[in-house]
Write a structure and sequence with these properties.
By secondary structure, the protein is mainly alpha-helical. It contains 8 helices and no strands. The mean pLDDT is 77. It is found in: Membrane.
Length: 225
């Protein structure tokens, strides 16, 4: 939340002074630094550090990338990536909640990111936050009306990321719905098989009971004669 606020304020408030912009930049780096410390601590506590680095190479790239080229967009990507990877490790977070949060986060940060790089472009047509949000929504849903489009290289890179993210999220939602239906069908099949087996067992018990009644009746008739 602190990172989102610090990232959004200088973009939305174009009249923000140097002091406020500097304070927001410091907050961004502090939040990123917290995740960097988290990675270093987990690396130090890992029994096999080489295997830890190999298994968490994406975390390492997200931590090192802003140091190589300290751009605000790189800090945005690294922070979102680290938050997402840590959130996926929490078993109590449901898939639906994660997807909804990812959609909202991508829309918000995608809009702010494209607005920050396109607003000052001479050929750009994304000038306001409303235009940026509309563009992000149409891009994520892969509709692409074409009324707004990025003109800078960085803006087009953001567009590619939103497109791929939208397709991935749509695939996750579709797979989740399909898995739910399959699980329901499997549950119904299991219940039906259980009922069939119970009926078969009951039928066999009735057959044995009839045979036992018939045997007892025959023995009683023999005793009478």
């Amino acid at each position: 939340m602190a990172f989102a606020l610090a990232y959004a304020v200088p973009i939305v408030d174009t009249s923000a002074g140097h002091a406020l912009t500097a304070a927001c930049t410091v907050v961004e780096w502090v939040v990123w630094g917290a995740f960097a410390v988290d990675y270093v601590v987990r690396l130090a506590l890992a029994p096999r550090r080489t295997e830890f680095v190999r298994r968490h190479w994406l975390d390492l790239c997200a931590v090192v990338l802003p140091l190589l080229q300290p751009l605000r967009l790189l800090r945005l990507v690294s922070t979102l990536l680290l938050v997402g990877r840590r959130a996926r490790m929490a078993p109590q977070i449901r898939l639906t909640t994660y997807v909804v949060g990812a959609v909202i986060g991508l829309l918000m940060f995608g809009s702010l990111a494209v607005l920050s790089v396109e607003r000052e472009s001479p050929q750009g047509n994304i000038r306001t936050l409303g235009d940026a949000v509309w563009w992000s929504f149409t891009t994520m849903t892969t509709v692409g009306y074409g009324d707004h489009a990025p003109t800078t290289g960085l803006g087009r890179m953001i567009a590619v990321g939103l497109m791929l993210s939208g397709i991935a999220l749509l695939g996750v939602v579709t797979a989740n719905i399909a898995a739910w239906f399959i699980s329901r069908f499997e549950k119904d099949d299991v219940e039906e098989r259980r009922q069939t087996e119970a009926i078969a067992v009951l039928t066999e018990e009735v057959r044995l009971l009839r045979a036992e009644v018939a045997r007892l009746t025959a023995e009683r008739e023999k005793q009478r004669h």
